[in-house]
Design goal:
Arc Repressor Mutant, subunit A, 3-stranded antiparallel beta sheet, 7 strands
Length: 251
């Protein structure tokens, strides 16, 4: 199970706390990092058990679960920029008057109306989620879709890829296996996304690469490593410093 599947399959309570438990491991739903029961983890001068330490990890690495979620693409959250800003201020514990002053809109009654609208959205979401869960029990013909990677910079029909289509695309363009050489990069954009998802698996998490190292890894997949590198950055798989001196996997 990759990180995206674990994240989307998590329960509401697991998402709220930011981690799930699988066997002897506590796993961060935001980045996939694992912490094993029975292992003591140091933080400063204090030692923590795994269950406590994963909460410290989430706070230290991601700020909070809320901060991580609110930064996700609006196609994933379903929030307008206006709603996003309101939720940020509500999470900070701002009063209606403080929110109105900071956003410079209407009056305190306007903010109360926004709170009511967001509450309605919450109710609608619960009803929709319940209906979708009930449909899953009946709809045996629904195809399994590949989840959108959480660092996606633009989400549209290009991400409409089933698991079966994904596997066929990988097999078609990587005739020697996904760790082999790419047949061509001249393909539909949705298929490019599939190929990029496979290529990015050649990079290690939490490792910083220089440009030469990135190029060498990409050369092992395709001659035109410059195009691959550009696409990996554009689609949110890789990030880099402005001067191109350092590259890393986006979480």
């Amino acid at each position: 199970m990759n990180i995206s599947e674990r994240f989307w399959n998590a329960s509401l309570e697991e998402l709220k706390r930011g981690y799930s438990q699988e066997g002897d491991y506590y796993i961060c739903l935001l980045c996939g990092k694992k912490f094993e029961q029975g292992i003591i983890y140091p933080e400063g001068d204090i030692l923590y058990e795994a269950k406590k330490y994963i909460s410290i990890h989430i706070q230290k690495t991601h700020g909070s679960v809320f901060e991580y979620l609110i930064q996700m693409d609006k196609k994933i959250t379903g929030l307008t920029e206006h709603q996003n800003n309101l939720l940020r201020l509500f999470y900070q514990g701002k009063s209606d008057q403080e929110v109105q002053k900071e956003m410079g809109i209407g009056s305190t009654s306007t903010i109360r109306n926004h709170r009511f609208a967001l509450k309605e959205k919450e109710r609608q979401s619960k009803v929709f989620l319940t209906m979708m869960e009930l449909i899953k029990e009946k709809d045996k013909n629904a195809p399994a879709f590949v989840e959108v990677h959480k660092t996606a910079t633009m989400v549209d029909e290009r991400y409409n890829v089933t698991v079966d289509e994904y596997e066929k695309t990988v097999k078609k363009y990587f005739p020697e296996g996904s760790q082999g050489y790419l047949k061509t990069f001249d393909m539909k954009e949705k298929h490019k996304l599939v190929i990029l998802r496979e290529i990015v698996k050649r990079f290690e998490r939490e490792r910083i690469y220089n440009e030469k190292e990135v190029n060498e890894i990409l050369k092992s997949a395709y001659d035109d490593f410059v195009t691959l590198r550009r696409y990996l950055i554009e689609y949110g798989f890789l990030d880099r410093k402005q001067d191109g001196s350092q590259y890393w996997l986006k979480e």
